[in-house]
Amino acid sequence: MKLRSYYREGMLRIGIEEDSGLFELKDFDVMTDLIVSMQEIQPSERKAFMKTLKKEAVDVALIRPAAPIVDPVKDVICVGLNYQDHVNESQSMAPNEDKSQIHTTYFGKRCDYIRGDGEEVTIHAALDSEMDYETELVVIIGRGGRGISRNDAYDYVFGYSIGNDFSSRTLQRNHKQWLLGKGLDGYTAMGPCILLNEKNGAQDFDLRGYVNGELRQSSNTKMMIKSVSDIIHEISQGITLVPGDIIFTGTPAGVGAGFIPKRFLQAGDLVELKVEDIGSLTNRVISG
Fold first, then answer.
1. Alpha carbon of 23 to those of 27, 80, 195: distances in Å?
2. What DSSP character marks residue 27?
3. What would the CATH number be for the domain defined by 76-287?
């Protein structure tokens, strides 16, 4: 089952996407409110609960898509260097640093609001012309907790989405930390929906990343160095996760900075990310 956020008559709404169409939900307009209300519902019971909230069908011609969660409850949690092939290509981004022993880096990504499918993303060329893309599986936390075990981790997953961790490589490189390089306005995109976690699994999604129709990234989440359960376990040992928390789980090889010569985004480029069973997230880069 998939959940979508969208604007209808200027107001944010939530709908269930089914084969027969998109159906608006009653009682909830903001995704995080819905997630909080479902904390104690087991994954196997979520689908039945969602059907009790279903209202009328929505005319998709009259809505504007939004990110599933527009305003994150806190800064987005990100995992860096979580695919070995991306660890290898990252040597070209900072050749003087030995990354052979680096496996997982956790960092916070600040965002003004999360861009959804079809929304434009502004390149901050005056600050950094090296704008890059990153295809990522996104995990949405459904239950709050701390000290979560690996065995229980999937019980805390509400669902999955697609994320683009847009990055400015010069800022990322020069500042030796990633707040500016990853956190510029507009540099977080997510969508087109949330695939509801009904089976407590997440290690077999194919990922693809395209720029102007050219395949740049191709992998599977089975290739992650740290699995979803590893990530939730490690983060929660010292950080309390809350319903609605967003975790970007890392990107495989094929980012623009990994090519020789490098292939950064330019104004007018169309970036399309695809994750199996979830759909596609498309954003055009514009000047600004």
1. 13, 36, 15
2. S
3. 3.90.850.10
